[in-house]
């Protein structure tokens, strides 16, 4: 029997990627719920997935025993409540990042996982959507650059003020910039080091240019420094991608080892090679460009197998919660609550 998923929560355009990747991995979409806070995403979903059944009755999908997985890109602050409801109906959950925005939600979701035996997985971008990041992890694990020393991640984003819904501008509904965007980089660092713990050495958020936003306290800059017994990580994220760039952000990652380094240019190669997902490997023997565009990360295929076999190869449940926990700890540190 073909495994089935349903989509509830189309408030962020990341839902396009969730649905398409699940279909590409061999799942069948049982339906999607058209209620949303973002008419742009609704129109985009209907255009991209005209063949998928639109289901006005949300309960029908939650009660459908043939549905194994609920995929959601709902308003971030509402994802935990939806996930708990779905798990209590016997469904596993794949949530767009950040997945968790408060300590209370983290505790409630952790409890629901234990009580129901279901899985709560967050689709952190690099792990699930970046073939270059997946290849970099393979190279690091294979010892291509020696022992891991440090990582540096830069995550710029374009503001796109005109198309953002109201919830986007509030940390209460969207999570802080460290929770919303920083979780990607935390996941990558823990994955590369093979650990689920890290010390937060530094964390900060700023509202640099409130004149660009409809509110005065929107966090448009964030930064973190983490370290564990394997390596250290410097992380930077912001909303200052200029309109002249050919993509929404020039995402970069630098991975330094004792015998070489890796640079990832995930979305584009400035004035260089076409497309994205570029990996540059430099060792004592060579300098090499590895084109990763068009390759699969393998995460969604692994998830489908995990749903069937009740394994945790795509991402461990404790790892997922560790990322959420560190993001909240960083937020507390940045806001002086720690």
TrEMBL record:
Pfam families: GFO_IDH_MocA, GFO_IDH_MocA_C3. InterPro entries: Gfo/Idh/MocA-like_OxRdtase_N, Gfo/Idh/MocA_oxidrdct_glycsds, GFO_IDH_MocA-like_dom, NAD(P)-bd_dom_sf. GO terms for molecular function: nucleotide binding; oxidoreductase activity. Residues 135-263 form the GFO/IDH/MocA-like oxidoreductase domain. Residues 50-124 form the Gfo/Idh/MocA-like oxidoreductase N-terminal domain. Keywords: Oxidoreductase. Gene3D superfamilies: Dihydrodipicolinate Reductase, domain 2, NAD(P)-binding Rossmann-like Domain. PANTHER family: BCDNA.GH03377. This is Gfo/Idh/MocA family oxidoreductase.
């Amino acid at each position: 029997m073909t495994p089935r998923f349903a989509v509830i929560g189309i408030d962020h355009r990341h839902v396009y990627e969730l649905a398409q990747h699940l279909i590409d991995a061999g799942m069948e979409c049982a339906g999607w719920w058209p209620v949303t806070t973002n008419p742009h995403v609704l129109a985009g979903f209907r255009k991209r997935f005209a063949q998928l059944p639109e289901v006005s009755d949300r309960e029908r999908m939650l009660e459908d025993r043939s549905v194994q997985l609920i995929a959601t890109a709902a308003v971030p602050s509402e994802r935990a409540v939806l996930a708990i409801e779905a798990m209590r109906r016997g469904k596993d959950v794949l949530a767009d990042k950040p997945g968790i925005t408060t300590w209370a939600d983290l505790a409630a979701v952790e409890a629901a996982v234990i009580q129901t035996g279901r899985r709560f997985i967050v689709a952190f971008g690099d792990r699930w959507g970046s073939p270059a990041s997946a290849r970099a992890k393979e190279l690091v694990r294979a010892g291509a650059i020696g022992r891991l020393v440090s990582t540096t991640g830069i995550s710029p984003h374009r503001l796109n003020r005109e198309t953002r819904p109201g919830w986007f501008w509030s940390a209460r509904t969207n999570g802080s910039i460290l929770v919303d965007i920083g979780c990607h980089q935390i996941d990558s660092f823990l994955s590369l080091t093979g650990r689920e713990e890290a010390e937060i050495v530094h964390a900060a958020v700023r509202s640099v240019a409130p004149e660009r936003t409809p509110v005065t306290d929107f966090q448009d800059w964030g930064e973190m420094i983490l370290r564990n017994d394997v390596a250290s990580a410097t992380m930077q994220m912001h909303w200052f991608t200029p309109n002249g760039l050919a993509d929404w952000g020039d995402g970069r990652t630098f991975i330094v080892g004792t015998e070489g380094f890796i640079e990832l240019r995930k979305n584009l190669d400035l004035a260089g090679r076409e497309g994205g997902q570029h990996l540059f490997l430099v060792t004592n023997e060579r300098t090499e460009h590895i084109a990763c565009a068009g390759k699969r990360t393998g995460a969604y295929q692994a998830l489908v197998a995990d749903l069937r076999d009740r394994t945790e190869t795509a991402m461990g449940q404790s790892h997922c919660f560790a990322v959420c926990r560190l993001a909240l700890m960083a937020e507390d540190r940045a806001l002086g609550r720690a």
